[in-house]
Amino acid sequence: MECFDLYDVNRNKSGKVLERGNKVPEGYYRLVVHVCIFDSEGRMLIQKRLKEKKGWSGMWDITAGGSALAGDSSQQAASRELLEEVGIDYSLDGMRPAMTIYFDGGFNDIYTVNMDVDIDTLKLQATEVEQVRWATEEEILEMMKEKEFVLYKSSFISLLFFLRNHNGAYMHKDPTR
To answer: Is residue 100 a contact partner of residue 108, using CB atoms and an 8 Å limit?
Structure first.
């Protein structure tokens, strides 16, 4: 049975755990992670969820993601999800997330990684992932319009593509020059 660490609002571990399937108690939070792999052409590796998978069944999604298990650091959870779902063995130790999004009941750490991957060699998680492919920002936004991609905000997808080559949201150079 999978269990998740529960955190306080300041992201300190509370010492309590939550079993999968139970609601996060009021005043506590769990950790979710996502990893977005980008190739040297600026495309994102995306995965198609199985039709049988609960939540966004049969839809395309970003590279990998899931809940951090009890005892996992954010980086360990992200590395594990990347390996489990798409077969990429990559350590995120020492990396900070490109961003963290807060949601009711949790924190979502999102990592961006630039690496070229031969998708024909990937070992996909048979219980979750149907297929993978490379996609541009424009292709993903079009897939969202067609309701083929998880219905994120389009600005979120654009931000992921921006963050693949930038740290934070501040431009250090005047973009008008």
So the answer is: yes
pLDDT of residue 170: 60
How far is residue 122 from each of residues 89, 112, 117, measured CA to CA in Å? 10, 19, 8
Q: What is the mean pLDDT of each run of 10 residues along the chain (177 residues)?
A: 95 96 96 98 97 89 96 98 97 96 95 97 95 98 97 96 79 59
SS3 assignment, position 40: coil
pTM of the model: 0.91
Q: How far is the C-alpha of 111 from the C-alpha of 35, rounded, in Å?
A: 5
What 3-state DSSP class applies to 142?
Answer: helix
Q: Is 170 helix (H, G, I), strand (E, B) or coil?
A: coil
Residue 53 burial by Cβ neighbours in a 10 Å radius (0-12, 13-18, 19+): middle
Helix axes 137-145, 154-163, angle to 10 degrees: 170
Q: How far, in Å, CA of 82 to CA of 88, rounded?
A: 6
Return the structure tokens found at 93.
């130790």
- Report helix, strand and coil shares of the chain as percent, to nearest 5: 20, 30, 50
